[in-house]
Structures are given as structure tokens and as C-alpha cells.
User: Fold this.
Amino acid sequence: MATAPTSFDIQQVLFQLGIKPVNLGTSTGIERFSTGELFDSYSPVNGQLIAKVYATTAADYEQVMEAATEAFTFFRTVPAPKRGEMVRLFGDKLRKNKEALGKLVSYEMGKSLQEGYGEVQEMIDICDFAVGLSRQLHGLTMHSERPSHRMYEQYHPLGVVGIISAFNFPVAVWAWNTALAWICGDVCVWKPSEKTPLCGVACQNIIREVIQENDLPEGISCLINGDYKVGEMMSQDSRIPLLSATGSTRMGKSVAQTVAARLGKTLLELGGNNAIIVTPEADLKMTIIGAVFGAVGTAGQRCTSTRRLIVHESMYDKVKHALIDAYKQLRIGNPLDENNHVGPIIDKDSVAQYLQTLDAVVAEGGKLLIPGGVLSGEGYESGCYVQPAIAEVENAYAIVQKETFAPILYLIKYNGDLPNAIALQNGVVQGLSSAIMTNNLREAELFLSTLGSDCGIANVNIGTSGAEIGGAFGGEKETGGGRESGSDAWKVYMRRQTNTINYSSSLPLAQGIKFDLN
Ligand code: NAD
Assistant:
């Protein structure tokens, strides 16, 4: 039975965030409207309807794009540090709303309250990062091969940046994109997941206050709502030079093709199939903590969740038994109760996919060590609570090659040397996050070398899940190749220009070419 939920007054949270029983899902920053169909947002925590949102129609979308395009003509002329000041003010508003927004994230998406707060903290952190960066949008200067010439690179804003986000990080992914895009001088149009529309409405209400209080142009932060059809409007729209899309590989392939057909740019953050390699020299205690948190945290619904544990034969039985013991201690229930380790998954479709995956594992010859299943009874009325499962499998199984967005951990044995484990780790189509547990320096360095992990993220003695905003975040292969957040990810949101200035009184051509005129 689930433990008693920690109660908070959801009505109070919705009131603070300006969410009504029925919400206009389209906004140009200050103005709010929508003429599309109403759709519902249910909480996976208890199955209750939270509120309704109007979807964005094609006509609404046109209005938004006109406002955004207009706002860009002004916003690009605002000095970058001043744009940073706007992001600073936004970060301050987020601090004031951290508790309420964190609770809404937890209630609408189903992640634990601590993770809900943590997600808002990530928004605050990226704002701080972006404020500093607004004074550091540096280009290079180079020596010209021609005398009395100077050459340099500078970065200019791109225009309207489209953001499509997934349900599992319903607020942070928008902030990762938008805080950087704003300091770069871009304006943003955001379509949140149709599974978490209220988080989008709440964020828009927060930035709306910043826009209003500071006389910023309407159109710098726009919201649209609805399902994939609204996302497709963005993919097809040549007024959007950069479309940042976070979600499944299936979605990313569709977005990439449509945007490429109009020679637009994409920033894709897609599915992962993340593994931890456990070598004979791993610390068992650290391994188990890293693996269990990675596999069951956010109920296995992080893009960086640990899906595969690739364990050396000499450690295999020890790891297996320790994992089974740890899983027996997991408390599954209301994610608002901090005593619980595992909350619900997002909806019943997702539950169905989880069950189909477990069937497919068995059909391919896998063995379920912890068989999983859907929980029922008091506290589990939403039908979205599942038992985290562990299966012994081969890496080559078709089902293991796929990402199932649920708490299923695959246990895979490797024999011999580390390159065998690395081959298994890299032997999937996705390339987001990876980790090795070892106290052996040679093993760690090999894993990080060019012969090692092929993922965008490679960790030593840390699990696969979670990332700090200071590093560039993203993955290779079918994860899409995009990089968001820290390091020099800002460059994606700008166009690069090479400038050559001739301060001589003649016009020498490059490469010594002569072109004499009488
Ligand atoms: P999803 O692909 O179903 O939906 C994501 C978003 O894309 C939604 O807003 C949806 O409306 C939109 N969309 C769907 N099809 C579209 C199309 N054809 N054109 C335009 N927009 C479209 O994903 P989800 O179920 O919300 O999220 C889970 C997935 O997201 C997992 O695969 C997870 O790994 C991935 N994810 C990746 C990262 C990352 O940084 N790599 C981060 C979070 C989530």
C-alpha cells in the first residue's frame, strides 16, 4: 500500500501561478488568447483533472509568429548585457515562485517533490549562467594575410527560436533554451508537451510579469499549446531559423527532416539508452546507489535514466543480489511524500508500453529477476504506478535496443577485458549518457578515450542520470547531436559572421591574386 501523501493545497498552488480551471493556451507575452479545442491535464499522482487548456489554432499561431517577428526587430538591438538583466529579473521571479512551480511540476508530471524543486532550481541556475554569459559572447580575432587588414568573427542573434519540449522536464528544458536564446538576442516561441500544458501556462505567467513590469516588447516570449500538429507548424515555418526539439527519436526524425527540407537549423535532444559499465574494480556500494537511483529515479523517465547495467562476470552475481535486495526496499507511492522513492509514470499509455516491454523481454528469452507489474489499491488509483523491474538480457535483443520510458533495468554480463564492455555499451543506436564504475585509472581513461564511450556524456564513478548546467548537455547518434545549457552551447543560438576590415589605401586581394585595372 502507498504511504499517505504529503498534502498540499493544489488550489493554492494553482492560484499563485495564475492557473484557472480553463486556460488560454496561447500567449504573445502579455496578451492571452486561444480559439482551438479544449484539452485536459490530469495528474498521474491521483488521476484527478487539474485544469483544461485551449489548444492553439493555425490562426492563433499566425498571431504569435507576427508578434515574435516584430519583437525581434527591436530585441536584437538591445545590448546583450541589458538582455542579461531581463534574464536576471526572470531568475528572481523564479526564486519567488520556486515552491509553487516545483509543486506543480511534481503534481502534473509525477516526479518527486524534491525533483520538482530541483527542476526549478535548474531554471534559476541557467538564468544565473546566462546573465554572466551575456557579457561574454566572444568572437575570435585572426591575423589577416593581407597588410593593414584586420579579421574577426562576431555573433549575431538568429531570430525567432522555436522550442518543443517533452513532458519529463516540463519547465527546465524551456529555461535551458530560452535563457540562452534571450541573452543572444533571439525571441522564443514555446510549445510544451500536451501532457504537461499547465507547467507551460505557469511559466508563461511568470515571464509575463517580467515583460509587463519592465516594458519589454510583447512577443519576446510566446507560448503555444497542443499536440504534434502544433509542433509541425513550427517545423514547417521558415520564419523559425532554429527549432530546438526535445523528445523521442521518432519525433526528432520527423522534425529534422521537415526543418532540413527548408534548410533551417535544429537542436535535437532525443532518446537515450544509457548504460553503466561495472568492472571488476568497481566499488560495489557506489555502484548499487548509482544504478538504483539512475534506474528508478523519476520512475525511469529521465532521458539519462540508467537502462542497462553491463557487469563483469566476476562481479555479476554480487551486483545482481545487491540490486535485488535494494529493489525490495523501494517505496512506491505518492511522489509528494518524500518517504517514497518511486512515483507514477506519466499516463496509462506509458503503463501499456512498460507492460509490452516486459512481455517482449520474456519473448526474446530474457529472465525477469524482479517481474514488475502495475500496482493497484489505495494510493494507486491513477493506474500509473508500476513496480520497477530488473531483467537479465542480451544486449542484442531488439527490445534492449529500444528506449522504454519506464523503470526497467537490463542486466547484461560481459566477459574478458573492458573493450568488450565498451563494445556492448556503444552497441545501441542512441548515444546520450554513459558511465563506468571503477577504481582503476587505466580503465577510467580508456573509457573516456577515443576508444571508449561514444556518448555525449561519459562519467566515472557517477551514474548516468542528472547533469550540471555548466557543461554542454546532449548526445550523439539517434540522440540527435544537439547541445544545450552550459559551455559554449550558446553559439547554436547565434549566427556567426566573419568580418575583414581594410585600413590601407590599396585593395590587395587574398591569395595574392592580381586584378590590375588601368
Ligand atoms: P514525444 O516525442 O512524444 O513528445 C515531445 C514533444 O514533441 C511534445 O511536445 C510533442 O507534442 C512534440 N511532437 C511529437 N511529435 C512531433 C512532430 N512530429 N512534430 C513536432 N512536434 C512533435 O516525447 P515525450 O514522451 O514527451 O518525452 C519522452 C522522450 O523525450 C524520451 O524519448 C526522452 O528520452 C526524450 N527526452 C530527451 C531529452 C534529452 O535531452 N536528450 C530530455 C528530455 C526528454
Notes: The first helix runs from residue 10 to 16. Confidence is low (pLDDT under 50) at residues 1-6.
